[in-house]
Amino acid sequence: MGYFWVNQAQEYLQSLGFGWNLRPVNMHSQDLRIDQLGIDNSFQVAKQDFIRLGKGGVDDAEDAEVIVHEYGHAVHESQVRGFGTNLDSGSIGEAFGDYFAVTVGLAAATQYGWPVKAEEACPMDWGSTSYTSAPHCIRRFDLDLTVEQRQGEVHFDGQIWSQALWEIRKGYEVQGLGTKAWDTTLVDSQFDYAPDTSFSAAAKATYTKALARDGLNAANLVRARFAARHITF
Length: 233
Fold this sequence. Notes:
This protein starts with a helix and ends in a 5-residue tail after the last helix. Helix 4 runs antiparallel to helix 7 (216-228) and helix 5 (179-189) crosses helix 6 (199-214). A hairpin with a 4-residue loop joins strand 2 and strand 3 (50-54). It is globular and about 40 Å long. It has a single domain (2-228), classed as Orthogonal Bundle (Neutral Protease, domain 2). It is mostly helical. It contains seven helices and three strands; from the N terminus they run αβββαααααα.
């Protein structure tokens, strides 16, 4: 299952043009280590370029969104070496992993004709059943958090950024651009992030890429959804 979902994530990136008409993103084999640690925790190791999936509760290698979340960290590392050196960039890394896990899962559901889960804004629900109450989510995209509510912990604070990403996705659908256009713009913009980027700087880079790729209306949507989280530039 681990290798299936790593492959699915890379196939999705290539379907957006990465490695073809856009720069490749982590376009190489990805090592996985499953049933690790004896605890319910997983992480990506940048230096040795492998993903370690923990066991305990529901083994993390049994949850597609956990696998793709960790692959999201490998994506960031392939785009910006050493990404995630401060609180904001670390939070962005966690947020992108959550968002990427859901968007790859939705694309796979369309590809294979699978049912879509009811709680789209609720990543990693299966892997968190042993320690959360229903609905089982590790984090959410709809808590209406703003930067003033940061707690100094990357997983919690990442929910500020991931909600903006999710709302922009919905806005691209409304504008008729489609979710794949947004995912392409988002991933392409990440090449322009610094390892220690701030929310503000990363939002500006994303806005600039949206303006260049998708036009003024899309860029204004990006600006507005980040501003709703009180991320301005």
